[in-house]
Amino acid sequence: MTSRISQLGGQLHVGPRTGGIGERRIALLEAIDRTGSITAAAKTVGLSYKGAWDGVNAANNLSETPLVERSAGGAGGGGTQLTARGQRLVATYRAAQAEQMRFLEQLNRRLAHLAGDDLNLMERLAMQTSARNQLLGRVTGLTRGAVNAEVDIELAGGDRLAAVITNASADNLGLEPGVPITALIKASWLIIAAGDMSAARLSTRNRLVGTVEAITRDDVASEITLRLPGGATLAAVITRKSAVALDLSEDDAATALFKASSVILAPTG
Fold first, then answer.
1. Which residues have C-beta within 8 Å of that of residue 174, sequence separation ≥ 6?
2. Nearest to 26 by CA among 87, 114, 71
3. Residues sharing a CB contact under 8 Å with residue 27, sequence separation 6 or more, in sequence order
4. pLDDT per position in the chain (269 positions), as tens?
5. Residue 254 CB: number of other CB atoms within 10 A?
6. Which long-range contacts (C-beta less than 8 Å, at least 24 apart) are formed by 40-48?
7. Which CATH number applies to 187-258: 3.40.605.10, 3.40.50.1470, 2.60.40.10, 2.40.50.100?
8. CA 268 to chain CA mean position, Å
9. pTM of the model
10. For residues 31 and 40, is the Cβ–Cβ distance under 8 A?
11. Do 192 and 236 meet the contact criterion of CB atoms below 8 Å apart?
């Protein structure tokens, strides 16, 4: 249990307004500040040159003013440096992290009797997202292409799905076989088909077959909830006309179809 709590020190979770700030992104900013070079900073934190610039661009996009700026070459050569805003962010992060670690040390002593599973579940339940479907799983395979990576995931109940994300996202999430992950799929991204469509000739990679648990209708849309064999549920929102055409009832077999690119992955405890 103690080690589980201590792991939270890797990311900042000091309140609802800060969210989770990646330790690696802060380390990249620190390395840029020390070296004045994006190439040297990338090597320091174990990123490719492109991956480092992707991280810098993402950080700049999320800030009201740039955190990193590039200087043009000249007699003294070009370089990359933190702005005053970037330096202030790094200092604030490290100060908050130090306070967090002191708090965690106290928490470790007080909660040493709690099971690690409870803490993992508490963290997952605290995650807020607009995606209706949140499925706990574990990475079983990772295949990389030039730009994207295909991630094979086994859900907690044994069901399987695939996700396609960028290589940069896979690196940021630290994905490799065995890593726990949460798959997020919006209810509006699911297509529902009556019956078992797992063997159908379709381009859609994910075909999860289950039984209809509930159907909720209004004048425009219908929500269909499927229970998968492993125990997880999937909610799909489709038009009322589509639901009428499917003519599904509770306990009927149905298949949830969705593209691998429609799966969003999030770290989990």
1. 267
2. 87
3. 44, 45
4. 333 333 333 344 433 334 345 788 899 999 999 999 999 999 999 988 888 888 888 888 778 788 999 876 544 446 899 999 999 999 999 998 888 888 777 766 666 665 556 655 555 554 554 567 888 899 999 999 999 999 999 987 788 999 999 999 999 889 999 999 989 898 899 999 999 999 999 999 999 999 999 999 888 899 999 999 888 888 899 999 999 999 999 999 999 999 999 999 988 75
5. 22
6. 41/80, 47/171
7. 2.40.50.100
8. 8
9. 0.58
10. yes
11. yes
Task: State the CATH architecture for 2-122.
Answer: Orthogonal Bundle (1.10)
Q: Which two tokens stand for residue 21?
A: 């700030």
Nearest alpha-carbon partner for 62 in 24, 25, 113? 25
